[in-house]
Design goal:
Elements (H helix, E strand, L loop, with lengths): L1 H26 L12 H32 L1 H4 L1 H7 L9 H33 L8 H14 L8 H46 L5 H28 L4 H22 L6 H19 L16 H20 L1 H6 L14 E2 L13 E2 L2 H4 L23 H8 L1 H4 L2 H20 L5 E2 L2 E2 L2 H31 L7
Antiparallel strand pairs: 1-2, 3-4
Length: 475
Amino acid sequence: MSAIISTIALSVTWCFCTACGSLLNACCGNDKASTIPPSVTSGRKRSVLLLFVALAIALVFQYYIGPLIIDSDEYTGWLSERWLDACSEYDDQSALLEECAGNMGVFRVAAATTLFFTLAAIAAVCKPTANREAWPAKYILFVFMCAITILIPSDPWFDSIYLNVARIGGVCFVLLQQIIILDMALDWNDSWVAKADAAEAEEAGTGRKWLGAILVSCAALFTVSIVGLCVMFAKFTGCGTNNAFISITLILIIATTAAQMSGEEGSLLGSATISLWATFLCYSAVAKNPDSECNPAVGEKDGLGIALSLGTTLISMMWTGYSWTAEDKFKRNTDEDNDASEPTIAGNSATPGDASGNRKVTGVVTGNDYGAAGDSEIPRPTAVGELDTEADEAAKNDPRRLSNSWKLNVMLAAISCWMAMSLTSWGEIAAEGNLANPQVGRVGMWIIVGSQWIVLTLYLWTLVAPRIFPDRDFS
């Protein structure tokens, strides 16, 4: 047995030393010839892939390693003590003990992931190209970080310190998710408007089907939101807290939709997606209420909430990693002079009156920030997905486009916190109808509903602010 442990320790040590050496070479610029730079998108995609790996490891730790440590307590000894020292109060309740052990496994992987992307953000600040270099070594380092967390006591590092860090990061993700959702909806809207304009140009009347598709999509999203609110009114009312949460959500959804339809800001599809996101957050909040009078599922594992949370996590990871528009969200405006005129990007959706089919980029609506003075010399891609010319490659590999790659890592660190909160129901320990820590559920409830109010208020502000202060530039 000791020989096996020694072999594993030596192997992990060798991998760690190799990873450190590769990272050092990458920082010094010696891992690859400077004439053959990695693709600018490689760092984003590999970062997202690593987050998928982290999610898989977290699930293994939660549903296999955690219970295994309990069952093999007599063989693991000191390892079991470090893993379960935060779960000692549940020793006489096997279901809650298993739930607690699983949560400690998730926190370990999520903490390693958050730390990894935090360090990656710092490295990207020091060296803008660091995000796309030495990825084999980074993966090895990440696996080592996950492995080393097994040796760290759960109390207080994971059940207290990281739990609170992850709550803060989860709130940040909720706010950032609003940007991602709006970006997805507006790109979706712009794409179909462009197709409608193109079809209308070829044959009059044919573009209406695309505009109709937008309206059908909006109707579907609003319908799901309304049905969700009705279900919550039917099953999660009975106490003032839940009644207030559901009512305020409905009022804010109506207010944001009315504000959008009464002006030219935003798009109806954007309001529909934000309404659905707000409905999901409201459900997450009322399902955390520890009061059994208004929560029929109190003490039970919220499978639906976990599934929906993981779904939003996966969508965010995919969009952040593979969307060209998402990449532009993390691109820095390299000049502070904002008096230059706005350029256009060919190939995107057309605006009314623009016969060329070009779209003017206006920060609030599209989220892009092309066109600041001093930035025009950077080659731009002519269309989303069309990156096969030398000018496009120059645009992708320009150092100024990489100078804010640290923002991507901060975003992924927030996603890792949200992942931890999703898998553990914000730190709740519940099984077989028994809620072991109702105060934790109450804290999670208020965190989620507070985040929802901020999200809807900020979105409402982006719609009404240009009307209240017409002389100010809100782009």
